[in-house]
Design brief:
This protein has about 450 residues and is mostly helical. Helices cover about 30% and strands about 5% of the residues. The protein has two domains: about 180 residues, Orthogonal Bundle (Cytochrome Bc1 Complex, Chain D, domain 2), CATH 1.10.760; about 230 residues, Cytochrome c-like domain (Cytochrome Bc1 Complex, Chain D, domain 2, Orthogonal Bundle).
Length: about 450
């Protein structure tokens, strides 16, 4: 009798445990197995990282210099990073304008500011020759007082400098940087051009920052550092081993800016929180989207590592920055091939990082997409929009994915929300040594940014 009771009890327990692991599907009254989304995602990440696990995708804290990838010729230190943070936003060094009215009105942050995820928040970034800011950079527009050929305006969408520590070379065509994939491109480092700065031997972040100060009409010298309070002292602390004759220049200023840029990491996003062990950091939809990202959607074939980027160039047939509303654009951008001169590289562009994309609604080197969903749908359908791109130049990875609408929804949620760091303002200074408004200092921007009433 007791044995029969025990059997009945055991059978009942099995039934209860089975039901506990299942749920009713209210639409068809069928039971489906409850999926452990966290365990499923960990398993997918183990494969995607080639066995390195979750740590492979974790971004370090911004003051963990030993964990941040850096140029051996430009080691990180606190003084250099702080100097770079100020110079990056300093409108007071915008002292080499084409027109006098542009003096001191722009900075590096004009096209790469925290309010837009260190992008521009307009399709075509404008340094000198632009006016206004709006709420988060969306109000930047061309100054009607400027001729088009006098404006500092971008011919490709301004990429973010966030998470750039994980890039060996910079820009959509990868032209800046003397190491990594640019080894062997020395014949293209033409004297008298910004690319000639590759001869300093630095990685891309440093080379771009050095070249960018000159290209974008900023000026640093000893006289300026003496005129603007604090800068001479800050340069002395950051570059004590440099001779005074070369210590206060666009080159050292660029090295400081690059050091700062390497610390701008989206390490407070829900995805990063989840990787560190907080399973409540992401919603179920975001977890499903992450699993798709690293499996069926094949996103990780190009976007991997802590920054979800890579040093690879692909042709996926996106349109260029051109059209009736574009100033000084292009109708046939050859991308990587335009730099290397190699026909096999034509129409291929560098894989971008994927954090804080919803801060600036323009995607692709031409800014022709205005939402993350549009980009995912474009890649899901895999039909090139740029008729200039030969089929032979389209990547093998650019093929139809057969994603469902629900899967697209989940992918969008993962990219837009789980990869979103809400506190990028921590990387901006409270004020500048010059006392000027930033990231822009033209009259309209001053009003937009609350610098004057």
């Amino acid at each position: 009798m007791q044995r029969s009771i025990n059997r009945i009890f055991l059978a009942s327990a099995v039934v209860l445990l089975t039901l506990a692991g299942c749920k009713k599907d209210k639409t068809d009254d069928q039971t489906t197995e409850v999926v452990d989304l966290d365990a499923q995602l960990r398993e997918v990440l183990e494969t995607a990282s080639n066995g390195q696990g979750l740590n492979y995708f974790i971004l370090p804290e911004s003051d963990q210099f030993s964990l941040i990838p850096q140029d051996p010729l430009n080691p990180l230190n606190t003084a250099k990073v702080e100097l770079g943070r100020l110079l990056f936003h300093e409108t007071g060094i915008g002292l080499n304008p084409r027109l006098e009215i542009g003096t001191g009105t722009f900075s590096c942050a004009t096209c790469h500011h925290s309010a837009a995820g260190f992008q521009a928040n307009v399709r075509q970034g404008i340094g000198e020759g632009g006016i206004g800011f709006g709420m988060s950079g969306e109000g930047r527009e061309a100054n009607p007082a400027y001729p088009a050929d006098s404006m500092d305006i971008q011919t490709r969408r301004s990429p973010t400098i966030m998470n750039s520590a994980y890039q060996d070379v910079m820009l959509w065509n990868g032209q800046f940087g003397a190491t990594g994939v640019n080894e062997g491109t020395e014949s293209q480092w033409t004297p008298g051009t910004p690319i000639f700065n590759n001869n300093f031997g630095h990685q891309g972040v440093e080379t771009q920052a050095i070249a960018g100060l000159t290209v974008h009409r900023s000026l640093i010298n000893e006289e300026i550092c003496q005129e603007i309070d604090l800068y001479e002292e800050l340069f002395d602390i950051a570059f004590p081993d440099w001779p005074e004759a070369t210590r206060y220049t666009n080159r050292t200023g660029g090295l400081a800016i690059a050091a700062y840029e390497r610390t701008i990491l989206a390490n407070q996003s829900p995805w990063q929180d989840w990787l560190r062990g907080n399973t409540n950091a992401m919603t179920d939809s975001e977890k499903r989207g992450a699993t798709l990202f690293f499996s069926k959607a094949e996103c990780n074939s190009c976007h991997s590592g802590p920054a979800l980027s890579s040093m690879t160039f692909y042709g996926i047939g996106m349109n260029d920055l051109s059209g009736p509303d574009v100033i000084n654009g292009t109708d046939d951008d050859k991308g990587r091939g335009g730099f290397t001169g190699n026909p096999e590289d034509e129409y291929k562009f560098k894989t971008p990082q994927l954090y804080n994309l919803r801060d600036s609604p323009f995607f692709g080197h031409g800014g022709t997409f205005t939402s993350v969903r549009q980009v995912i749908e474009y890649k899901n359908n895999a039909v090139a929009e740029n008729m200039n791109v030969p089929a032979s130049q389209l990547a093998e990875e650019f093929h139809a994915l057969q994603l469902t609408e629900q899967e697209i929804d989940d992918l969008v949620n993962f990219i837009e929300y789980a990869l979103y760091d809400p506190n990028l303002v921590r990387y901006t200074p409270d004020a500048l040594p010059s006392g000027q408004c930033f990231p822009n200092n033209d009259a309209i921007s001053q009003i937009d940014q609350g610098c004057i009433e």
